[in-house]
Design brief:
The protein has 274 residues and is an alpha/beta fold. Helix content is 40%, strand content 14%. The chain contains nine helices and seven strands; from the N terminus they run H-E-H-E-H-E-H-E-H-E-H-E-H-H-H-E. The structure holds nicotinamide-adenine-dinucleotide.
């Protein structure tokens, strides 16, 4: 099979949660640029409007809907409406996520931070992150499965994190629990849905420049500091995400399910500082 056929998503119907910014926006772009019809679900009306306008101007078939992944009935309605409009739902990226705020040490991991300590971690902060980063993924997978199962085909891709398998102590505890939970939920859904030819995989990003956490990774000094820990010696841009996203959304990955693909410039294998 030629590469163009293997990676073909033309005519697909797709949904991306948290699609109006960062990593989610890169999923929207790579699908739409390759001929898929893509709906971005996001809480930011402003970003939805701006990105829809920008991408439509390129001639791409995109639309935006303001939906919070913690509002499960609204999420279900958005999936129903989108699947009806497209006549099919081929691809779903369960991507929406937030940063939980400071962990129990500073980001350089050199100093303890009292407000991130477990004894001071309040319920509101814990629950908010679990609600979006874990419960939101559950509700998104559920909504996608309802549309994909009758057609016996589909691709569900969950954005996890390196935090799913190692502790990033500078990031709050709730994020570790949510991402590890999302990774294991991915495997559970993959096993359950395999019989219906629906694949469910996760993407675990390392350090990407996006708007998460108020956009702290957009600062040059932060990028330079983090780049020192990364074997490939740079942080990632959202362009780096597109090849893997297209691979997992397309026929090229047809025999892969239950996998968590790490895209981190080698960060999980160790560091050298020469
Ligand atoms: N940037 C990184 O380095 C990095 C690393 C590992 C994992 N991730 C994960 O990648 C995913 C995307 O994050 P990003 O870095 O692109 O951040 P981002 O802030 O640039 O984009 C996230 C988008 O999700 C939307 N969103 C937030 N809460 C939502 C909700 N309740 N319902 C619907 N939409 C909501 C935001 O409005 C935003 O448009 C997240 O799951 C995040 O945990 C990011």
């Amino acid at each position: 099979m030629k590469a163009a056929e293997m990676y073909k998503v033309e005519g697909y119907g797709a949904i991306v949660t948290g699609g109006a910014s960062g990593i989610g926006l890169s999923f929207v772009e790579v699908l739409a640029e390759n001929g898929a019809r893509v709906t971005m679900l996001d809480v930011s009306q402003e970003r939805l409007d701006a990105e829809t306008k920008r991408l439509k101007a390129k001639g791409w078939d995109v639309r935006g809907m303001k939906v919070d992944v913690t509002d499960h009935p609204a999420l279900d309605r958005a999936f129903d409406e989108t699947a009806k409009l497209y006549g099919r739902l081929d691809v779903c990226f369960a991507n929406a996520g937030i940063d939980p705020g400071i962990g129990f040490v500073t980001v350089d991991r050199k100093q303890r931070v009292p407000e991130g300590a477990i004894e001071n971690y309040d319920d509101a902060r814990w629950n908010r992150v679990i609600d979006i980063n874990l419960n939101g993924v559950f509700a998104t997978i559920r909504a996608a499965a309802r549309h994909m199962k009758p057609r016996k085909s589909g691709r569900i891709i969950v954005t996890t994190s390196m935090a799913a398998f190692e502790i990033e102590a500078g990031i709050g505890a709730s994020y570790m629990a949510a991402k590890a939970g999302a990774a294991h939920l991915t495997r559970n859904a993959a096993l359950e849905l395999a019989k219906y030819q629906i694949t469910v995989n996760a993407i675990a990003p390392g350090w990407f420049i996006t708007n998460i956490g108020g956009g702290w990774m957009t600062k040059k000094e932060v990028q330079d500091e983090v780049a020192e820990w990364v074997p490939l010696r740079r942080v990632a841009t959202t362009e780096d995400m597109k090849g893997l996203a297209l691979f997992l959304a397309s026929p090229a990955s047809s025999y892969i399910t239950g996998a968590q693909m790490v895209i981190d410039g080698g960060s999980n294998i160790g560091n050298v500082f020469d």
